[in-house]
Amino acid sequence: MAEPRWLDGREALVWRRYLDTQRELLGALERETLRDSGLSGAEYAVLVPLSAATDGVQRARELGAELGWDRSRLSHQIRRMEKRGLVGREECETDARGSMIRLTSTGRAAIDAAAPAHVENVRRHFFDVLTVEEQEILSEAFGRVLTRLSEEGSTKDPCD
Amino acid sequence: MAEPRWLDGREALVWRRYLDTQRELLGALERETLRDSGLSGAEYAVLVPLSAATDGVQRARELGAELGWDRSRLSHQIRRMEKRGLVGREECETDARGSMIRLTSTGRAAIDAAAPAHVENVRRHFFDVLTVEEQEILSEAFGRVLTRLSEEGSTKDPCD
DNA sequence: ATCAGTTAGATGATTCGTCAACAAAGTTGA
DNA sequence: TCAACTTTGTTGACGAATCATCTAACTGAT
Fold it and tell me: Looking at the C1' of nucleotide D19, which residue has the nearest alpha carbon?
């Protein structure tokens, strides 16, 4: 392999800022949600799409797709949340392999109580600090990063 | 509490793009580093500052500060890496509480082998997809987010 | 109808990360 | 000097995340 193209000083700063922001921002949000509502970040993430589903019921496969989680991760998380009484599992009527995840009344109460403070925290840490123009550029740029990642991911070097 | 200011459609998209990018980008990098070099993301993160330290030795406190990790996280990680032979622990001569972390020759070889592929991956997924202007705006904006976060973190509401 | 291939989900092992509690050593100030 | 406080690091418990593996069930082609 040829001499690697190391990051120059400017690039290293950009990359470090990205990593630091990710760590601090998500860490702060997670801590605040736990303090305010007793919900972990993972629990909150699961409850959001579930509370938007009709009747609070959604198939595990779809829930995982919306979250961008693999089956194993979701299965483990649902098991823990079932123990806490936030969700329940039911059989899927149209596909015997399937698992339907149901939001319990406890889960509904938890997400309803947690959401207002969470959105306020996201505003305070993120939207209130950035101009709309910056938000748009970030969205456009990150959309491109995501597109590139999914292109590469699907191109499973067919024989090369 | 008053009616929360929910995110509108545009804001929700920006926020979702940020979260999705974080998850996919860091996930891809971690997976690639593991495949290419057998190093986890956490191991790679520890080895980088350590390999830049004089003699490959650094006090745990400083290492943790550079990484933005708390003491516990670093201690657990060092213990696991010690088992793998990547680093060693030594006593600190100037402060009996302290712990000096030393990069072993195995650790040095591992980071030297892993770094070129890692920097290429960062370029491919991130820098090659963004214009320099976008990188600068992102760096500036995220710098502000970090500043705000650290201001709030240090302002421990002194009596309010 | 059957067999190959795929998909859905669960599970165990392992690593990663946080919190709370602890111990030992340093620091400060009366 | 001595007590109060802070700093540094470790540990145990638990939640979180990935990987490999497994079972059951769906799909499609012959």
Answer: A72
Min Cα–Cα distance to chain B from A45, Å: 11
Give the C-alpha separation, A131 to A126, whole Å. 10
Count CA atoms within 13 Å of residue A31 on its CB side.
8
CB atoms B141 and A127 under 8 Å: no
Nearest to A68 among B23, B115, B140 (CB): B23
Q: Compute the distance between CA of residue B116 and CA of residue B112 in angstroms, rounded to an integer.
A: 8
- Give the closest residue to D24 (Cα–C1′): A97
> What tokens appear for B51 in the block?
């390999």
Determine the distance between B70 (CA) and D4 (C1') in angstroms. Answer: 25
pLDDT tens digits, residue range A28-52? 999 999 999 999 999 999 999 999 9
Q: Provide CB contacts within 8 A for B150, sequence distance 6+.
A: A24
Distance CA B58 to C1' D2 in A: 34
pTM: 0.92
DSSP for residue A5: -
Predicted confidence at residue B151, as pLDDT, reads 84
Tens-place pLDDT, residues B47-68: 999 999 999 999 999 999 999 9
- pLDDT at position B159 over 60: no
pLDDT at B155: 52
Calculate ∠ Cα B132-B137-B143, nearest 5°.
Answer: 125
